[in-house]
Amino acid sequence: MRVAITGGAGFIGRRLALRLLELNALTDAAGREQPVERIVLFDRAAPDPRLLHDPRVEAVIGDIGDPEQVRGAIGPDTGAVFHMAAVVSAGAEEDFDLGMTVNLQGTMNVLAAARSLLAPPRLVFASSVAVYGGTMPETIPDGLILNPQTSYGTQKAIGELLVQDYARKGYVDGRALRFPTVVVRPGKPNKAASTWASSIIREPLQGEEAVCPVEPDQAMYVLSPRKVVDAVLKAAALPPEAWGPARMLALPGLTVTVSEMLAALAAVAGERVAARVRFEPDPFIQEIVNGWAAHFDPARGRALGFETDSGFEEIVRIFIEDELGGSFAA
Q1: How far apart are CA 295 and CA 159, in angstroms?
Q2: CA dist 301 → 202, 235, 311 (Å)
Q3: The predicted structure's pLDDT at residue 189
Q4: From edge to edge, which strands make up the β-sheet containing 78-83?
Q5: 122 forms bridges with which residues in the sheet?
Q6: Treating both helix axes as pointing N-terminal to C-terminal, what angle do 258-269 and 195-205 enclose, rounded to 10 degrees?
Q7: 126: number of Cβ within 10 Å
Q8: Which entry of 132, 152, 171, 221 is annotated as an active-site residue?
Q9: Residues 138-143: contacts with CB within 8 Å, 24+ apart?
């Protein structure tokens, strides 16, 4: 099977590709397990060079806003598409046109390319809990009306509806997953409004100071990268009848406050490491984060077998194991 991953040079795209190479199998739209013969990583940047050592991996550098380039990446024999490419939250808020081009037009280009294939592919779309907002109950149930309060959330909500409509028409076998905030991400801070949630764990573990722009009692809904990749692959494997007419769901996650995150960091790595975080309020970031839901009851996701982490300490340990080689700066 040929697999296309948009955002293939990104954090989740890279980890997804590595897992697919390890598994060397994926369920196709007919429900049959097929060997993974080719993984096309489509992104504006080159992927991790280590991936390119595997002959099954092909890198295509291009612009997701260009329909012709997207069609070139999602070739005629593509059986599965993982649409992970996006401009992150604060970036889409600061640059409206860029967010619309990548997050909305890019999704439309991916869906159009998938529709043009001879056989409708399985398609998994990375959405976000940012699709919720405004006046919300304390705990978000499945089926709550979408009311995003940011451009990013709006673009993701439209993408979900497009995926569902393309699935209804039989153009793709689509599924949309509302990701919690994914922590801990490696590398450097990006323009996501939630980037601090990784920074306050990542930098201290590497001996560096980190700045938290929100209040200590700020709650976040989070999930580890391992569980996100597990969820993406599970979503791709589930048969259409398991989804029914609703092709989107919120993934199970953990609700933790900043104080609880730092307490978990201290429990795993020591108080000295946790003390490397200082608080500097940023009203712009705080306003965005205030609009996000923090408490969820993802009953449908749990019923379908999607899993969350056991606690935030596990999330800290996963980062140390997967990204720091098992050690950290005490």
Answers
A1: 23
A2: 29, 10, 18
A3: 82
A4: 57-61, 38-43, 2-6, 78-83, 122-128, 173-179, 248-250
A5: 80, 173
A6: 20
A7: 26
A8: 152
A9: 138/295, 139/295, 139/296, 139/297, 140/250, 140/293, 140/295, 140/296, 140/297, 141/297, 141/299, 142/249, 142/250, 142/297, 142/298, 142/299, 142/300, 142/301
36 SS3 class: coil
Determine the straight-line distance between the first and last CA of the chain, rounded to whole angstroms: 45
Tokens of 233: 């692959």
User: 282-294 burial by CB neighbour count: b if 16+ within 10 A, else e?
Assistant: eeebeebbebbbb
The 10 Å Cβ neighbour count of residue 44 is 15
Supply 30's token pair.
Answer: 């007919």
Q: Can the peptide bond before residue 214 be classed as cis, meaning omega within 30 degrees of 0?
A: no
Q: Which two tokens stand for residue 183?
A: 């922590």
**Angstrom distance (rounded) from CA 219 to CA 273:** 21
- Report phi then psi at 120, rounded to 5: -60, 125
Total-model pTM: 0.93
Q: DSSP secondary-structure letter at 104?
A: I
DSSP letters of 222-277? EE-HHHHHHHHHHHHHS-HHHHTT--EEEPP-EEEEHHHHHHHHHHHH-HHHHTTE
Reduced to 3 states (helix: H, G, I; strand: E, B; else coil), residue 26 is strand
What is the Cβ-side half-sphere exposure of residue 241, based on CA atoms within 13 angstroms? 2
Confidence at residue 191, expressed as pLDDT on a 0 to 100 scale: 72
Confirm whether 166 is a catalytic residue: no
pLDDT along the chain (330 residues), means of 10: 96 95 90 93 93 95 97 95 92 93 98 96 96 92 92 96 97 97 89 88 97 95 97 96 95 97 98 97 88 91 97 97 95
* Closest to 157 measured CA to CA, from 140, 145, 168, 167: 145
DSSP 145: P
- So what's the pLDDT on residue 38? 97
Q: Please state, in angstroms and rounded to a whole number, the distance separating the CA atoms of residues 298 and 311.
A: 17
